Amino acid sequence: MGCRETGHGYLRINGIKVIADGSLGARTAWLSRPYNDEPGNSGRLNYDKDTLLRIARESDEAGLQLAIHGIGDATIDLILGIYEGLGGASRLRHRIEHASVLREDLIRRIGRLGAAVAVQPHFVVSDWWVIDRVGVERARYVYPFRTLVNAGARVGFSTDAPVEPLNPFETVYAAVTRGRYENIELLRYTENETLSVREALHLYTCGSAYLLHEENHVCRLEPGYLADFIVLDKDPLGVDDRELREMKVLETYVGGVRVYPAD
Ligand SMILES: [Zn+2]
């Protein structure tokens, strides 16, 4: 962990991931109230609180960014308490990973901290059963991407591959359609959380770059930035939203050099 840079720019250790709770699918994400479809169970924390706090302090002191996996609202509450105790999340940009179930008070705290949140929009489509788990009353707390951004959270996208599809356009498609074409029940309660293609692409480029401390190198095609970019077969801002998942990458450039297709 002492080595943060490998020297050639392709591999860097930013921080550590801590898996503080489980998943909604397995009913192991830690909720502040029991699961709708298993009333005796609220999920659980994978660590005792003191251990989690010690890991967080040691990581912070070592200058390593924390990326704490928190899916249930009780876990996210605890993570925010830790980040608030560390004097805010801004310097190392400590992250909350997933942040799936977010009560309004948690969103306000995330906004106040300007905390970094890594979300995986494809969960919206994969977790088609999520209303069974949390019930209708908590539906509006699930994957509230627009509310998070509006509150001042620093949001970035990721795929969560290999759990979710590796193709990033599946993630863009899910953020924009929110399961409209798959009849996902969550959409009915959270239609206001859909994003435009432009917003989704921004969060997936500049948003994610901020989470990685990379916003001064990538995410813009401007002098002084690395020329990392792709060439697509169609304009994502011009296609029908159903076609977003079918976007094809024709060419990939890294640092201005074409790496795909290879010569
Ligand atoms: Zn995770």
Summarize the model shown:
With 263 residues, this protein is of the alpha/beta class. Helices cover 31% and strands 14% of the residues.
Summarize the structure in words:
The protein has 263 residues and is of the alpha/beta class. It has one domain (15-221): Metal-dependent hydrolases (TIM Barrel), CATH 3.20.20.140. Helix content is 31%, strand content 14%. The protein is built from nine helices and eight strands. The strands form two sheets. A five-stranded parallel beta sheet has the order 1-2-3-4-5. The protein has a three-stranded antiparallel beta sheet with strand order 6-7-8, with no helix packed on it. Helix 2 runs parallel beside helix 3. It binds zinc ion (ZN).
Topology:
Blueprint: E1 15-19, H1 49-61, E2 65-70, H2 73-85, E3 95-98, H3 104-113, E4 116-119, H4 123-126, H5 130-134, H6 145-151, E5 154-157, H7 168-177, H8 186-190, H9 197-211, E6 229-232, E7 249-254, E8 257-260
The structure holds zinc ion (ZN).
Indicate the low-confidence ranges by residue numbers.
Answer: 1-6
Question: Helical region count?
Answer: 9
CATH architecture designation: Alpha-Beta Barrel
- CATH level-4 homologous superfamily: Metal-dependent hydrolases
The chain-level structural class is: alpha/beta
The domain tally reads 1
What overall geometry do the principal axes of the alpha carbons give?
A: globular
- Major sheet characteristics: 5 strands, parallel
Count of beta strands? 8
If strands are numbered along the chain, what order do they take across the biggest sheet? 1-2-3-4-5
Reported by name, the CATH topology is TIM Barrel
Assign a percent range to the helix content: 25-40%
